[in-house]
């Protein structure tokens, strides 16, 4: 995977990083000053760690892949919050997406197609049953998806099944650059034992997207969505170099196998940026 130009799948386990206040500040100091308030606004230490590591991953990946000096990297964000690079000429459509939940923070990048990443932590609901918990999200699921979830077996299996669908929906929306208002109920996923995953949008199957699910450990899942740049929302489309992708390029991207994430430590990230 690492050999393929512009394609990266990196992940960090933040539970392994226990920085002192000085070590945390030293890592944050590697980022441009305008990125730091977004980290400091979090009250909980774990949330601050996730926000910091997410940004370290972005700058380190861009520096690593595109060989841009750190002080010259200009990461912008669309009104919906999707990060993008200004003036990236190395690849037709270099784009990346981050996600964090629970123990993990991750990033995925692609040179041509849109990429979305979502990480979920399969945590047991507190103070309510699994059925009560997933019922809160029923309006975001189609009848087909709901039936697949509630018939999955034990409450643990039902919860995991729910998170698989949720993870895929989020990865797709993030790849497009859509905001929180996007109607997740418009998306319906079909699969063969969670391989050969396909999507129906507003009831119509599309061949312009590919999806993959990964089990990071017993409690965490990750999903990757890859698709045609013409499906990006308008604000994000403006940030892309081109929305033209040949059938051959699209087919090649969607047919190429997805490999496991590369695990990085925060120390490795910071060293790569110094």
Can you lay out the helices and strands and say which pair or pack?
Elements: E1 8-13, H1 21-28, H2 37-40, H3 45-66, E2 75-77, E3 83-85, E4 95-101, E5 104-110, E6 114-121, H4 130-135, H5 143-150, H6 155-176, E7 187-192, E8 195-201, E9 204-217, E10 220-227, H7 234-237, H8 247-255, E11 262-264, H9 266-273
Parallel strand pairs: 1-11
Antiparallel strand pairs: 1-5, 2-3, 4-5, 6-10, 7-8, 8-9, 9-10
Plain-language structure description:
GO terms for molecular function: holo-[acyl-carrier-protein] synthase activity. Its EC number is 2.7.8.7. The protein contains nine helices and eleven strands. The mean pLDDT is 93. With 274 residues, the protein is α+β, with helices and mostly antiparallel strands. The chain has a five-stranded antiparallel beta sheet with strand order 6-10-9-8-7, with helices on both faces. Strands 4-5-1-11 form a four-stranded mixed beta sheet. α3 packs across α9 (266-273) and α5 runs antiparallel to α6 (155-176). The chain has helices at residues 21-28, 37-40, 45-66, 130-135, 143-150, 155-176, 234-237, 247-255, 266-273; strands at residues 8-13, 75-77, 83-85, 95-101, 104-110, 114-121, 187-192, 195-201, 204-217, 220-227, 262-264. A hairpin with a 2-residue loop joins β4 (95-101) and β5.
